[in-house]
Structures are given as structure tokens and as C-alpha cells.
Amino acid sequence: MDRDILAMSGGERERLDVLLRLSRGELRQKRAAEILGIGARQMRRLTRAFEARGERSVVSLKRGRPSNNRLEAALVGRVETALRTTYPDFGPTLACEKLLEREGITISRECVRQIQIRLGLHRPKRRKKKRVFQSRERRPRFGELVQIDGSPHDWFEGRGPRCAVIVFIDDATGRLTQIVFSPSETRDAYLRALRGHVLAHGLPLAFYSDKHGIFRINAKDVVSGDGKTEFERVLERLDIELIHAHSPQAKGRVERSNQTLQDRLVKEMRLRGISSIEEAQAYVPRFIAFWNAKFSGPPRLPEDAHRPWTRTPEELDEALARRETRKLSKALNFSASGSLWCVRTQGAGIALRGAEIELLHFLDGTMQARRNDRALAITLVRGLPTPDPGEDEKTIDARIDTLVAAQAGRAQSSSPQGRGQRAG
């Protein structure tokens, strides 16, 4: 039997069955046309072709012939070279975009995918059965709910130290509002992102976070303090609600954004040779503009839910400052930040002995002492020993990377080559 007949598609086999029934007198042409979903004239043409050529008449004449829309061999060669050398680990969508942007090659995503599969650069993923979660409808206004999260990752692929990225993304629009690079996921990194968001857009109604210790006290047996983290106190001063998600799926938009950033942002920085936090932070505004143009959409309601920040940036810095109280000794001394400090006064300062003062720790590392909302002049007396800070699952990578680098440095200095270089 002819190979083309054996390789018939399902539609061609259905058409052949109808024509055979028609030839045996089991159907009339009108009914056959209805079954095949074609007109009477087309049915008559199929019948004449079947009477003339038999079963081969239902096989497409294009089978086995090259497509009229096939890519030129030279273009395919350019694409293959670029995919092998410059974009070996890029997904089809991102590779397609970069071929157009950087190489000037217009090609469909599916063509890129097929070429990548043929070159062994892409393996199609099997679809897995996933647990279905009820999708929460997006908030209607920009600024009603901002999802926040941190993503520790090897963002520079070994060209620089591991670090974390703090991400703020609006729930209503999918719009990135802040990306902040930091050595690790810390409270100050979130506060720097919060400062940038407020100055750019205003005060949102609420933040949506996980249950990390930055956002809430997780210890069950706490008996001292007010039960709030410093981040919660800052949001309380700014009148911003903080909502904790019970699962990663609950704040899936920022989680999925982190996955996309770990793919796209990493590769964009690779193409630009970015290998430090400072260079990455300088590139952030350009990347955010690209992201928002490509992935964000309009809110259901046009009103902006942000409350405008009408005061100065310095007043915002004061609201973001970490605060603690200290009691002055008879010599007007107090300890803070691992150091011993002294309040300077014009006279003896008897009225300040044993007084409680408030310390404001600003994001730029400076500290201010206050008494009754009045700034006090202070001077550093001496440094004090401080214990190593505790680490968690989101900060330990940076600590271990520092130890690994130090170990590598010691090994190099103790090697014969290292000693010879020093002697030279």
C-alpha cells in the first residue's frame, strides 16, 4: 500500500470513509457534504477526484514537499550560530526577543524552539498535573495592595558575590515598582525599597508579605516588647497595613515574578557584563521600564489608591529610622551600635543624668540622639565588642560565601606560587 495512504491524518481518513460510503450508495451527496462540513460544489469536486484517482485523492498534494514559507538556509545558519554561542541557555521566548533586538533577526518563537530542540539546547517540558488553587481576583486600583518579597540568588552567575533582590510589585497591574539589590535579605533593604516606592508613587494602602522574621515576631513565648518588628513599626508610623500570606501560592504574583527575574534579569545582566550590586542597581530603572511595558496591564479602575507623600524626603528618612531608647549614666554615657557614646553639653548636664533618650538609626548608617524631640550632640568614646549576628535561611548564603572567599584567599597566599609572588 502507498506510504502516503498509510500516513493519512485523522481528517483525511474521515473524508475517505465518507467517500467510500457515498460510492457504495449508503449516502447521498447532500448528506455527505453535511457530515464533512463543506458545500455542495466542493463535495462534487471531491467525488469526481475520488472517481478519478481513488484513495490518493484525499491525501494532500503538499505532503512531502518543502514549505513555501520555509526559512532560508543562510538565516537558519545565523540563528543556529547565535543560539549556540550567545544564547545557549535562553528560553525560546527570550531568545526570540534577543535575536530581534540584538541581531536584527525576525523569526517566530516556535521556529526558535524547534531549532533549539534540534540543536539539543532546549528540552520540552512534560506537563505535570498540578494542584489547582482558587485564583484571587486582582485588586481594582493601583496602590491598593503591593506584594513584597526577597529573592536570594546567584544573580551574577559567579561574576560577583551572591546577593538578594527585594521586589515590590503592584497587585492590580503587575507593575514592578521597586527592585533593590542587597548583600542579603534584610530589614534595611526592604526599607530602602519602601523609601523609593513612597517617593515615586506615594503611600500604598497595604503590603502583602510572607511570615519572615522581618515582618512579624514568630516566637510564641515573647514576654517583652510590644510584639512588633521594626518594619511593622515603620508601617504603623506611615499608616500602611501589613498583611501576611499563609502560603507562597497566596502571593503567587510576586513569587512568579521572582522566577521570571531569575531568568530574564540574570541573562540581561550577563549580556551587559554587569557583575556588582552597584552596576546592577544602576541598570534597574531601565529594566523596570522594559518589564512594565511588556508585562504590566491597566487596572480595572483608573483611580490611584496611593496617598501622596507631601512632606520632605528628610521627614521620610526620619519615619523610616529604627528607634530605641537608652538611659544615660551619671557621666552622660550610653552604649549603642557596639560603641560607647557620650552626650556633649555646655555645662555639667546634671538634668540629663539618668534621663531616657531616643536613638534614631537612619538608613545611611548615621545615628541621632533625641530628648523631648530635641537633637542632642553626641561623641564617640570607644568601640565595644559585639557578638556575631544570627543567620537564617535567607542570609546564610552570603555568610558562607564570605567564608569560602576568605578560605580561597588563605589557600592562595600559602601556596608556593603565592609565596613566590610576594617574594618577587
Give a quick set of tags describing it.
about 425 residues; 5-stranded mixed β-sheet; single chain; about 40% helix; alpha+beta; 4 domains; 11 strands; 6-stranded antiparallel β-sheet; Nucleotidyltransferase, domain 5
Report on this model:
This protein is of the alpha+beta class. The chain has helices spanning 3-6, 10-23, 29-36, 40-53, 73-85, 92-102, 109-119, 187-201, 230-238, 252-271, 277-295, 313-320, 396-414, 416-423; strands at residues 145-153, 163-170, 176-182, 206-209, 241-244, 322-327, 333-336, 339-344, 356-361, 367-371, 374-383. It has 4 domains: 3-58; 73-119; 145-217 and 228-295, 2-Layer Sandwich (Nucleotidyltransferase, domain 5), CATH 3.30.420.10; 321-383, no CATH class. It is built from 14 helices and 11 strands. Strands 6-9-10-11-8-7 form a 6-stranded antiparallel sheet. A 5-stranded mixed sheet has the order 3-2-1-4-5, with helices on both faces. Strand 7 and strand 8 form a beta hairpin. Helix 5 crosses helix 7 (109-119). The chain is elongated, with a radius of gyration of 33 Å.
